Amino acid sequence: MKLPENVRVGPGTVITGDHAFKRFLSRSSPGLTIGEHCTMDGTHFAVGAEGRIQIGDYCYFTNAVLLCELELRIGSYVVIGWNATIADTDFHPIAPADRIADAIACSPLAAGRPRPPIARRAVVIEDDVWIGPNATILKGVRLGRGSWIEPGALVVHDTLPGSRVGGNPARPLEDAAP
Amino acid sequence: MSPAAARRLEGDWYPGAIPANVSIDETAYVQTSFSFHLYRSAEPEGVRIGRGASVYLGTMFDVGRQGRVAIGAFTLVNGARIVCDAAIEIGDCCLISWNVVLMDTYRLPRDVVKRRRVLQRVPRLDPRRAETGVPGRPIRIGPNVWIGFDACVLPGVTIGAGSIVGARSVVSADVPPGTVVAGNPARVIRALEEGQAPWRE
After folding, report:
1. ipTM, 2 decimals?
2. Maximum distance among all Cα pairs of chain A, rounded to whole angstroms
3. Structural domains in chain A plus CATH codes
């Protein structure tokens, strides 16, 4: 696979899938750093111009969707399940007037109009976190070391180290080992 | 139908084959062998697809060495992720929507130290599979069940005949027959009426 020039990948890391860099628009240097011995299978690195993603060692992602306009900081031994989505941005403004301005700025008639400011906050995923399939992690969240995110969970708050969360919105669960 | 040798599907865009230990009824429809590119069951019959059933694009049989999947007659699987290390049984006349995850195993241990050990081994494997022998707990889906898109059905769950699972639900507990459940975690919304329950006859 031909990597964009601002992507750094450590030895033993394998990236597969046709969509990995289809939406990689980062102009950060580097825009994506992946450590050693990672397996990035069918993962989307959808990174905006100012976005940057950092991933540690021995991570295993299956068809994860990483949407980054600012920063995703992911530790080592992190597992992300199929079709899980991580986003550090709201993508569009909240206020109705700003959204009108944004719709026009995103249109074919934008004629160079700038987009209004959009809320974005870094997502931090510490070492040893497990994220199940179809889970969603939204902006500003820090997943504490070793936390376990159940399949389909929608996470909007930080998780404590070693905790297990699930549901929409995700809440702490009894820590019965699955 | 008894399993034969690995074989090609007619008009398949993917250059793969249907594995030898997959039984597909001659009246069933499987869109592409791509659905089997993660399949590695060593069971005598790893997947059985019944009469008039259909399996569309996007469905993935991520079936481990000891996994067994059975899909009933006239059941429609429209792009589900089937993660199976034990057994997943889907009854007759079910409707399974897109991006549904049916998983009878979490594949990786909850214990961080054990999980690290697995993840350190993965890069040396070809293909790289994160598997550990964490025991699976079978999923049973009764006949005439409808599962909405993006829903997850977790290990050990049984869904009773005729029930409906709302879109994006996460089902972690058993669902009685003739019941509508929805939400994350899924809760009972209401019972279907007697007259709406032909499966009881």
Report:
1. 0.90
2. 56
3. 7-91+119-172 (2.160.10.10)
